[in-house]
């Protein structure tokens, strides 16, 4: 049985107040208030590092009906500053459920609020744009606004350093790789031709047997990116966000992945310098923030979106094939196509607002996407992009082999 839950309030910086009941930990929290339109995947949202520094509002009204599970996490902890829902389920129904969302937030020390009109909040953010907010047990709006005014504003501080790893480590799997979801993921990889011999396990193959080493520069990586690479036969090494190009190249990678992450890419000069140092030396893929970092490394600029793209239903067109994919997204910044250098060309566009959703380099083995090809929990439409990246790696390996013959 959950504990008694008192009154809580969400106060936006424009003075709007949304009363409800405490969800999760007692206390107060501030952050940029954003909404996500996915119908499932609340635990993946909560543990997605790209939500660092933000208060998350799912638009789907019932949250927690299938509980929480260790297999559904995308990082080692809850990453959001706060959580706002219409209704939370106190009696989840799922054979793998390990507890309620309320208990999950409580155990992780994250404040939230339930019973608020999330539709009204979403309509306001769509109209006025994302804004700072505070979740507080204090009913005095003036005090809440005074506290909010003193809080650091999202986009004015480096969030990546708070969510990235401090250590270099080899990814050897987690509980997610014991789930049915990973079994299905590996099956889709094999159907795409990139999962051959995966069942033999990393480290059990000869170097010439579909062996690929990928270094992931962690700006806030989702674990399903690491799972998706392993499902395609890659050895995965994860390095901190402040790793230099020399640090990364010292691992002799066959490819480098620049991960997603939170915050404004304008604050990441160190990461831009790393991307510059890697360009042309190793096949490279950037996802979300990694995409923006690569674009800035080639001289492009980025800008903040009005309310961002967050959800599992964003239509994106692959300009090479002409196909349209339903994608999972979580970002508040985008690349300005007007500032692209000659070497980079747009590979994908968002059909809702025509913003840039992917880039490729004309001469170097570099590809980027603004959305999440790893999805988790879905949709799975864009997993082919991991196959495309592995194809770049294999082409590079073939060139090295030809050069030594």
UniProtKB/TrEMBL annotation:
Q: Which InterPro entries match?
A: Anth_synth/Amidotransfase, CarbamoylP_synth_ssu, CarbamoylP_synth_ssu_N, CarbP_synth_ssu_N_sf, Class_I_gatase-like, CPSase_GATase1, GATASE
Gene3D superfamilies tied to this protein? 3.40.50.880, Carbamoyl-phosphate synthase small subunit, N-terminal domain
Q: In which pathway does it act?
A: Pyrimidine metabolism; UMP biosynthesis via de novo pathway; (S)-dihydroorotate from bicarbonate: step 1/3; Amino-acid biosynthesis; L-arginine biosynthesis; carbamoyl phosphate from bicarbonate: step 1/1
Origin superkingdom? Bacteria
Enumerate the residues binding L-glutamine: 50, 261, 263, 289, 292, 330, 332-333
Cited Pfam families: CPSase_sm_chain, GATase
Alphabetically sorted, this entry's keywords are:
Amino-acid biosynthesis, Arginine biosynthesis, ATP-binding, Glutamine amidotransferase, Ligase, Nucleotide-binding, Pyrimidine biosynthesis
Q: Which SUPFAM superfamilies match?
A: Carbamoyl phosphate synthetase, small subunit N-terminal domain (SSF52021), Class I glutamine amidotransferase-like (SSF52317)
GO molecular function per UniProt? ATP binding; carbamoyl-phosphate synthase (glutamine-hydrolyzing) activity
Q: Which CDD domains match?
A: GATase1_CPSase (cd01744)
Q: Where is the Carbamoyl-phosphate synthase small subunit N-terminal domain?
A: 8-136
Q: Where is this region: CPSase?
A: 1-200
The UniProt entry annotates the active site at 288, 372, 374
> Alphabetically, which GO biological process terms does the record hold?
'de novo' pyrimidine nucleobase biosynthetic process; 'de novo' UMP biosynthetic process; glutamine metabolic process; L-arginine biosynthetic process
Task: Summarize subunit and interaction data from the UniProt record for this chain.
Answer: Composed of two chains; the small (or glutamine) chain promotes the hydrolysis of glutamine to ammonia, which is used by the large (or ammonia) chain to synthesize carbamoyl phosphate. Tetramer of heterodimers (alpha,beta)4.
Its function, per the record, reads:
Small subunit of the glutamine-dependent carbamoyl phosphate synthetase (CPSase). CPSase catalyzes the formation of carbamoyl phosphate from the ammonia moiety of glutamine, carbonate, and phosphate donated by ATP, constituting the first step of 2 biosynthetic pathways, one leading to arginine and/or urea and the other to pyrimidine nucleotides. The small subunit (glutamine amidotransferase) binds and cleaves glutamine to supply the large subunit with the substrate ammonia.
What family classification does the UniProt entry report for this protein? Belongs to the CarA family.
Enumerate the HAMAP family for this protein: CPSase_S_chain (MF_01209)
Q: What is this protein called?
A: Carbamoyl phosphate synthase small chain
GN (gene name) = carA
